[in-house]
Each structure stands twice: as C-alpha cells, then as structure tokens.
Design goal:
single chain, Rossmann fold, two-stranded antiparallel sheet, 6 helices, about 25% helix
Length: about 250
Amino acid sequence: MKILVTCKQVPDPEIKIKLNADGSGISTDGLKFVVNPFDEIANEEALRIKEKLGGEVVVCGIGAKDIATQIRSCLAMGSDRGIHVVTDAKLDSDSVAAILQKVVDKEKPDLVLMGKQAVDDDMAQAAQILADKLSYPQAMYASKIEINGNAAVIVREVDGGLETVEVTLPALVTADLRLNEPRYASLPNIMKAKKKPMDEMTPADLGVTPAPKVRVVKLVAPEARKAGVIVKTVDELVNKLFNEAKVI
C-alpha cells in the first residue's frame, strides 16, 4: 500500500511571532520553523498503517529550499522517501491543491493523508479542493482510520459527536488532533533520514503555473487584552457587568 502524506512548514506554535512593520507578513528573524502538527499526526498514522499492512510512505512538501528540513523530520519518524516541490511563490489553498494533484497523478497512492489544517493560517481548504480536483472520496477530521481491503472506515469528528463513514480507495483523509500521538524520531532514524531519497522538482516540472486566487493584503496583531479588576462587592460586580461590559 502506498500512502502520500503532506508536510507543511509552519512557525513553531510555542514561539511568539512578530509582524513586519508594514504588516506585509511575519518577521522571520530568528524564527523557528517546524512540521505542521496536524501533518505530523497524518505522517504518524501513515506509519501505523504501513506497520500493519506493509507498503510505502511518501512525504511531499511544497516551498522554499529550507523546508527540506521538515520533510527530513518526517522521514526520521520512519517514512520512506520525500518529494520537495521547490518554489518561493506565495501560494493559496487552490495553488497548493493544483500542485498536489500533479504529484498524486504521478505517484498514484492508495491513500492521501493530510493534516486537517495548517496552524499558521488555519485555512483548512487545500485538502477539500484537492479531493475535488482528483474526484477522490474524502473524509475530513478523522479521529480513527481502519483499512479494510480496498476501503477505509473513518470515524470523523463533527459538530455534536462522531460520524463513521466508509470510502473506497483511493481516497483522501485529513487527520484531527485525537487520531494519534506522533512518535519521537530516534537518533539512528535521524541519521538514516539524511540518506533517504528526496526528489526535487518545481511546479513547472509538474506542468503547473501557480495562480493564487487569494492575496493577503495586510496582517494586524489583535488588540492587547485589558487587565482585569478586583471588585469588592456583588453590587459593584453587577454594576460593571451592566454598565461597562454590557453583558447583562
């Protein structure tokens, strides 16, 4: 079984980011980048399926030269080989899906596993657009995946509960937070990952000219939260809630 996993580079969620003075983007000075946490969960699930059924896990990342580090991180977890689509272009979800469509056409995986969203922009659109372009059945926000022959049974998280669906392979599934807990890469596997094959190509090599439909005009930091106050009486609390906060 061949599984294709996506890998996006995102700023470390544990680090406070700063915006450029003109609001055109985030400042990358001293910024640490990591694998998108939901993509890491998708990679872990692909490895668990491979350990159970055998096969190959291929990791695909799109972006500048330095995202090779994040692809190697997925390989260090146990994936077999990487694909790096090298581009400095600013891509929206549609452009990402257009590139991934060509990668999937080339690789012909049985299953495409993606994170449910990227934690930098929280768009959560690329997977759905890709499934539409491929005409693949899709199951988003998976908290459990079970492969049965040429089908996959997915337990997915929906508003108000869980939903179980069955899709015919090939299919596209996105990983939710509770799907699994990713393993740590061992030192031997980190060393092995440096020698694992990674194909480099450009969007042009795949016959794609990125044409983003969405443009970020400006980024603005949220307003600083006002400090709380201590009230001495219930009457004072009610007065502030009614006259100042206006919540009652």
